Amino acid sequence: MITPPQSHLVVARLRRPIAPPRAVARPGLIARLNEGLAAGRPLTLIAAPAGYGKTTLAVQWAAQVNHPVAWLSLDEADDDPLRFCTYFVAALQTAAPSLGAELTPVLAAGQPPPPAALAAALLNDLAAVEAGPILCILDDFHVIQDPFILALLENLLMHQPTGLHLALVTREDPALPLARLRARNQLTEVRAADLRFSQAEAAALLRDGMGLSLTDPDLAHLAERTEGWVAGLHLAGLSLQGRSDPSTFVQTLSGSHRFILSYLTEEVLARQPGDVQEFLLQTSILDRLTGDLCDAVTGRRNSAALLERLFTANLFLISEDDEARWYRYHRLFAGLLQSQLRRRSPEQMAELHRRAGLWHAAHNSPAAAIDHALAAGDYRRVVEWLERSAWALLNQGYARKLEAWWHALPPEHRSRSLRLTLDFGWMRLLRGALEQVEPLLEQAEASLTVGDSDEQVAGRAEWLALRANWLQAGGRHAEAIEAAHQALEIVPSKDLRVIGLASLALGGAYRQLANFERSETALRRAIQASRNAGDRVTETLATAHLALMATQYGRLRLAASVAAEAIQRLTEAHTAPPILGALHGALGRVYYEWNDLQAAQDHLERGVRLSALAGHNASTIYTLCALARLFQAAGALEEASRCLDEAAALLAQGAPGWVRPELIARQVGLALAQGDAATAEMRLRAGGLDPDAPVNDHTEALHLAWLRLFLVRGDARTADLAQRIIAAAEAGGRQAALIQALLLAAQLEADPPSRAAAHLRRALALAEPEGFVRVFLDEGPTLAALLQQLGPPSWLAHVIPAARHPSLQEKAMASLAPERTEAQWGDALFEPLSARETEVLRLLAEGLTYAEIAERLVVSLNTVRFHVKEIYGKLGVNRRTQAVRQAQELGLL
C-alpha cells in the first residue's frame, strides 16, 4: 500500500471524522444520497458555503451506507498532483488494499502519471473490486484547483466506473463537467438550500441537543435571522447557554451573516473561562491539534483532556480519528479565532508559530515545521529544515510547496545555502526543467568556497555531478564527460550518492557517443554506488541505460541479467521508480529474440503500462514498437498498427529524437508486411534520411528499413547498401544490426547459394552465443528455405521439429493471433533448453520437489524456480505435468 507523507497524521487524514456530539439526524438528505448511490450515478456533490453542516452530513451518510468507504480530508497542500494522487490512492486502499499496486512504485518515486494513464490504471483496478462500489468522500474539495487533478477526476467520472462512487464536499462548484453529468442523470446534488435547518431541525439542535429552553417564536426568529445556517444556530446556542433571559438575546440578533458570526464568536469566547479563551486563541494557528502539540504551543500540561472536553461541549471542534487523539477546528471558527488573536495579542503570533514549528520538527513533520517557521519569520530554521528534508519532501509530493517555500525565503537566505541550491537544481533536472537548472548552477558556483576541507570538496563534487547530468541531458556530451570525470576525481569515497550521479552522467554521455565499453563501466559503477547509497531513482536510471544499450548492441544475456535482477529486487522491496517500465521493455525484447513469445508479451505490455503511468514517453514508444513487432510476427496486423499509432501520438507530444528512427523502421516493416511498398517509402522519406547517407549507430534502423524496401523492389542499390550497413555495424560492434544486415544480404545473394551460405554462417555464429532465434524467423519463408539448404547447426536444428509440434503451434497462435491459420504461421523455431534446464526438467519428471532439486544440484531454491520458469516458457506450458508430457512428446526426455 502507498504510505502518504507525515505518518503521524495519515490515520487522521484517511479516516472519516466522528460526527459531533448530539448531531441532528437528517434522514431526508441521507435518503437522497443513498438513492444516487443505488442508481449508479458516479458523482455526488455536497456544495454550500462554510458552516452549513456539509461534513457532518457526509459523516452521517458514511456511517450507515452499506458499501466500503474511503475518506480523505484535504488541505491547501494537497493541490499538487503528486501529493493528491498519493493520498487519493492511499484512501482508496483503505477500502480495497490491493487497489493501485502498480501505482505504488510510480508515486513513491515522486512523479505522478499523466491523468489519462492514472485514470486507466485505477479503472482497471476498480473493475475488480468485488465488495460493491467504493464510496470515496473528498472533504474540503474547494482547495483543489490544479488542472491535472481535475483532469484525473474527469477521466474517472466520464468512464462511469462501476467500482467507484465519488462524493465531493466543497464550498464551491469544482471545474468539472457538472452540466454534462446533470443532463445525463449522473449527478446527485445537495446544496445550501437543502442543508438549511428547518425550524424543527433547529429545535432538535438547540432544545434536544443543547438543552436550551426556547419558545417557538424564539426558534422561529433564530431560524429566520440565520436563514437556517447551521453555524449561526450553533454559535447562537453556545451564546445562549446559561442566560436567564434567552428571548431578549434572540431579539437582538440582526445584520448580515458575517456580522452575526463575528458577534456570536465574541459572545461565545466571552462566556468561556479565561484559560479556555486563551487556549482557543493560541491553538487557532494550528491546522490540526493533539494534546502534546497543544501543550508545546500553550505551555499547558492538560491539553488532551481540555480538547476532549471542548469536543464534548460541541465547541466547533472536529475529531479526526477513532481514538479522539487528533482534532481540528471548524475552518470558519478557526479563521474567526485567528482574527481575534491578531486583534488582541499580535505579538504572540510569531512565538506561537515558533513553538509549533519546533514540535513538528521533533516529531518528523518537516512540512508543518517549515510552514510554522515561515509564519514566525524564522528563516534560519526554514533553511536548516529544508536542507535536512528537501529530498524526502519532494518524494512525498511537496514539489509545489517546495517551490513556494523557496520563493518565500528572502534572497540572502537562499544564496547562503549551497545544499539548498543543489537540491533545487537536482529537483528541477529530474522534473525535466532544464532551462531552470542553469541559474541555480551559477548560484551554487558563486557560493562554493575555496578550500580542501571534506565539506568544501564534497560541495564542489556534487556541483560538478549536477552540471554533468545537465550537460548530458542537453546533448553536450563531451562537456558532460569532462565535468563527470572532474567530479569523480575529487568526490570523497564515502559520498556514494554523488559517485552514482556522476557515473550516471558519464555512462549516459558515452552511450550517446556509441562507446559501449566505457558506457557499461560507468553505468555499472553508477548502479553499485547508488544502490549502496539507497538512491533507487539513480540506480534504476543507470540500469535502464545499460539494459537498453545492451539490446541495441545485441548483448541479450547482459540485458536480461541486469534488467531481470533489478526488476525482481526493486519490486520485492516496493522501491521501484517509474523508469522500471523501461526495464520491462528491454527484457521483453530479449524474450522476443529468444522466441519466448508469452514472456515477451507479458513484459512488453507491463513495460508499456508502467512507462505510460510514469509519463516516460521515450520508453513507452520504444516498448510499443517492440510489441508491434511481436503482433506483426503473430499475424495480428491490426494490433500492430494500433501500437504504432499510439507510439506516433506520443512522439508528437514530445520525446527524445533517438526513438523516432525506431518508430519509422517499425512502420516501414508493417507497411511491407501489408504489401504496401508505397506507404513504406513515404514513411522513410518523411524520416529525412537519404539511403546514400553514411551509416552510423543513429541512422542504422532507418538504413535497415531502406534495405528492406530495396530488397522488395529489386533496387540496384541494394547490394551496396547492405555492405555499407554490414561494415558500419561490424566496426561499431553492434551485433543486432549486423545479424539483420547479413540475413538480408543472404536473401539478396541467394543465387549463387555459396554467397548466401557465407552470410548465413556468419549470422549464425554471431547469433548462437546470445541466443538469437526470432531474427531468423521474422525473415519468412525465403530465409527458412536457405537455412534448410544450408543445414542449420545443432543448436538450431533440434528445435525446428519442436516448433512444428501442433500443441506448441496452437498455443502460440491462440495467445497472439487467434484468427491466424497454421498455413499463415509458417515454420517457427523455439529456443532450445540449456544443459542445466534439461537436467532440471529430468528431475521434475522424476517427481522431485523444488527443494529436493536445489539440494541435488547444489543451487538455491530461487535458482530452481528461475530454471523452471524458463522451461515452462520455452515449452509453452504452465504446469509440471504439462511440461513433462510436452517434453516426452518432443523427445527431450
Low-confidence stretches: 1-11, 798-830
Structural class: mainly alpha
Q: Could you give the order of strands across the largest sheet? A: 2-3-4-1-5
How many extended strands?
7
> What does the largest sheet look like?
5 strands, parallel
What layout of secondary structure does this protein have?
Blueprint: H1 7-14, H2 27-38, E1 43-47, H3 54-64, E2 69-73, H4 81-95, H5 103-108, H6 115-126, E3 134-139, H7 147-158, E4 164-170, H8 178-183, E5 187-190, H9 192-195, H10 199-209, H11 216-226, H12 230-240, H13 246-252, H14 257-270, H15 274-283, H16 291-298, H17 303-312, E6 317-319, E7 327-329, H18 331-344, H19 349-362, H20 366-376, H21 379-395, H22 399-408, H23 411-416, H24 418-430, H25 437-447, H26 454-473, H27 477-490, H28 496-512, H29 516-533, H30 536-552, H31 556-572, H32 580-593, H33 597-614, H34 617-633, H35 637-653, H36 660-673, H37 677-687, H38 700-713, H39 718-732, H40 735-748, H41 753-770, H42 774-777, H43 781-790, H44 794-797, H45 800-803, H46 806-816, H47 822-825, H48 835-845, H49 850-857, H50 861-875, H51 880-889
Parallel strand pairs: 1-4, 1-5, 2-3, 3-4
Antiparallel strand pairs: 6-7
